[in-house]
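Memo to structure team: turn this sequence into structure tokens by end of day. - J.P.
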Amino acid sequence: MAVIDQLHRLESVGLVRLAQSQPELEYLFRHALVQDAAYQSLLRREQRDLHRSVGELLERAHAERPEVVALVLARHFSEAGDEPRALKYFALAADDAARRYANDEAIMHYSRAIELARRAGPERAAELCGLYLRRGRAQELSARDREALAGYEQLEALGRERGDRAMELAALVARTTLYASAREMRDPERVQALSAQALGLARALGDRASEIEILRDLMHDARERSQFQEAARYGEQSMALARELGLREALGYTLNDLSLTYMMLGQLARAQTVRQEAAALWRELGNQPMLSENLSYAAITDVITGKLEAALAGAGEARQISRAIGNWWGEAISLMPAAMAGLRLGNIADALTAMNESIRLAEQAGLAPPQVQMRADLAMVQSEMGMIQSAGEMAQLALAKAEESFPIYRLYALAALAHVYLLKGQLAEAAALVEKGIPDLEREDLFPMSRLALVITAVELGLAQGDYGRALFFIEMTLPMMRGMGIRYDLPVVLLLKAQALAGLGQPAEARAAADEARAEAEATQARWNLQSILEWMSAQEQAAGNAREARALRQQAREIAAYIAAHAGASGLRESYLALPRVRALFAPEEGDAA
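Reply from structure team:
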């Protein structure tokens, strides 16, 4: 009986119904159980033939864009027993899911493809290796690092079993990268041992491309150990080799990591140069996770060099990309420069939202830096806005996390906690924390922003103790470093502290010059958060000198900024605590000559 006659018969008894007649005849089963029964009535050979026929029909129909139906094709050819074509389309479906950042879907399809590739002959070894590595990358992006490691170990064992040294090398490099970069699996000793093993094997095989990755892993490991000069040497070797071989994606990865290394060294101009080159590569190659990371670190550099609006724009694009692809790690990092820039601009509510969200995402992703810096910054904001108790608790959390997981930012957290004690008037406690950190100021491997934070608190302590000479000593030690590196973040603060130290030493002209420079710097970078304090202090100095008109004008400008900060403090109780601060109440108190 012809198929069409069978369909008419099934339709007449209500088992199927006509869905459409044009452009192609299409019937639907009335119930899934009917469809299943009809399918099971076929012989296994007939089932395979049917799947093969449907698969080949779809394959021809979608020859130009097979990825659209790759998973359907994979299943049909799998049921048909055509494992080579099933492998092809499971891999294609996995790659398509990975491009869409549907990582869980990609992992599932890669796993199915790996099963099929393992049953294939040694001629599919390179394909099998690539599938393991791409699945591992999807697992890493989904914070499933231990699953990725298990896959790499399986691949390495398979390489040894087959005598496939290239496969073994690929797995070794992947394992090294994971131990060098995955926060919860950091193992410097393993990195060193695996790197030596991988380098020896790469050189024996003449695999120079793998050397690029190994050198990059060594750079990352050295940076995690705060050996920034060593890290830069490895990074520059990796960069030179990638350029020599013309491997653009490998070059992009190295440039991204090298830019962060240069930033840690305080070489901000070099960091920005290599980062911009990497950004162009990521846009060209369409690599969204790496572009997001690149933009975030560029935004951090923009904050440090005083380009606050540019930092907000870059951080915003980075966050948009990370959210679209479900990358918690990338989103947590992107929120850091957004918070730093928002705070300096006086947009307190926006900054606090970014800080809290960065901390939350960083906890989910197992990422330490935001958990330290954002908590320390949050403590600083809360203390300056009058919420001293919560500020102290937040600073303690920052310090505990730094000592546990992020030692290069330990001084940053120490400074935040000491600052809270200063504002509470507990000078002895603040001094103990500062003294605890001062020996580390001489370390060459210390991140400049961490050093700067402690110096500022040490200066504040010196001023509070009336030790103006010591305060000025720290300032003069720090200013050349800031100017040499192009650091403008907190430069207005340091210049104001210099003015206060000079005034305490009885040098009013020099103090006025430093205050003028602090004001100009804050205005140039739109740092309202700093400018208010500068104007307040300058107003008080003019009042003390008998310059009432100038004092009044400066006080009015400070009042306008305070009003802006209060209006942008949000509804968390911060606005009320800020307006209740004695120095802020004094700004808004009526004085002689004010309008009634």
